[in-house]
Fold:
Amino acid sequence: MPSSTTELIKSKLDVVEVLKGYITLHPAGKNLKALCPFHGEKTPSFIVSPERQTWHCFGCNSGGDIFTFVMKYENLEFADALRLLAEKAGVELRHENPAEYRYSGLLYDLNESAKDFFRKAFAAAPVARDYLKGRGLAEETIAEFEIGWAPNEPEALTMALLNGNRAAPQDLVQAGLSIKTERGLMLDRFRGRIMFPIHNHLGKVVGFTGRILPQLDRGDMGKYINSPETPIFQKSKLLYGFWKSKEGIRESKAAVLVEGQMDYLMSWQSGVRNVIASSGTALTAEHLRAVHRLAEELVLSFDNDTAGSDAAERAIDLGEANDFTVKIATIDVPGAKDAADAVKADPESMKRAIVHAIPAPEFYFKKYLPAASAGSAELTAQLRSREGLQRLRAVLAKLRRIASPVERESWMKELSRRTGIPENTLEEEAARSAAQEGSPFAAQGAQGEADGDAAAPRRAATRRERLGEGLLAIAAARNDFGILDGCEEYLAPAVNDALAVLRKGERRSNDAALDALLDAILLRDTSELADISQSEIAAFRSDLAHEYYKERRQVLTLAIRNAEAKGDDAELRAALDELRSLPTE
Ligand SMILES: [Zn+2]
Structure:
């Protein structure tokens, strides 16, 4: 929604200055280049144009201005990005704003006032303090995270906010702080609860989690209740504590995910500064995207019970689908069922668990394979049973999801070592169960649904595919397909087909899948593509070749292992010769 305010802000802020606050930019002719923060890459395809005041990534095809960048990077709605950049630009927003913006401003104010109210009430409620002390929380942690207390009265907060004359009753309902009964009475949503404010990624309070004080728990209300979704509080996007842990995550390039607020707070207190919690809601891909801009590794620490193990399994799949290296941290404090208990008993336990975290496939071996010792006759017998075979197939299905063929291969080897089943037998079994379930990707979807997992991973385009599509879009925008001469070999087959159609001057084929790809290429925003320099095009071409050779090396490495296993000398020699002929990195 362009308006005079956004134009004013853009005139005061330079795209280069704003982006420099987030990523490292290198000069590249009249433009600047960077590693894209929105997809994983080793060579930069993210271009910033000071002239146009725009940015564009040719790897993942995202782009825009400072607002779209900040929205994407900070995971913000437009209104919040506007607020953030207005502050940076020194532009006053208060008076000339759309009603919607004023309204979310009111919701922020009400949540802030509620937090202050709960803080004051906490100071006067020893019972709340005693409870948190009993759980092991220190005064400083309570203050740092602004934990409060909702008095066990029907309308304490509601009356305090209404008396201040700052809001109408329906605003309190909208903010999720009050509820209206059928008879029209206004009541506090949170009563007799320890109040954990939930801050958005910029540190503003947008909602609460309230934990009932055990002595007030009659079992008829949830132990924990959360603010409802509001225009400023979106559970699928917010991670508890992310505002505090951002720096720690950025520095360590890893995020430690725990289940609840208490796990978070106790971990933080024990010095784990890259911790986050998915509180009150299932983990979503959107949560993970916010983290992925800062970290490549996700360390999971979930409760030591069946529910925790199942939750961990969902988080592993979601993490791997979103391109994280996933590890599992297991608490080694006897009797502790979660991170909060463990840290209370032994403050070093969380750090220790993180250091000793195991890779996800290892977790699956432990979870699904029988406990008998590796390679023993006992284990072989157990795996031959009906149940054993099902368990083995479950592990194979998990390994099939590993994106890198090389990594997958090494875990198949490890599985073979542990089970005493030859690798090619495992491969056959994997191929057969994949075929029975249909295509590998259909199989993942079907299995995901059976698990109750709504976010089953789907295959993302490879970098080679994305680079090829990007180059094709540039060529189409300039109507100059010469820039792709000599690249045909490196293009993914589908992209090559698209190039052939476009070279004939056509925009359609009689293949639906190819047409979809043509649409995706032709419908890109051409204004950003037309004035790319020759040196930038040359860089994309060399990136494309680099990706092609990388994929080729992986394929040949596998072919060599297979040929060795089969004892096929001719195949082995051919694969080795081609591998040696490839340019080295
Ligand atoms: Zn990108």
About this structure: The CA atoms of residues 194 and 413 lie 50 Å apart. Confidence is low (pLDDT under 50) at residues 438-460. The two ends are 46 Å apart (CA to CA).
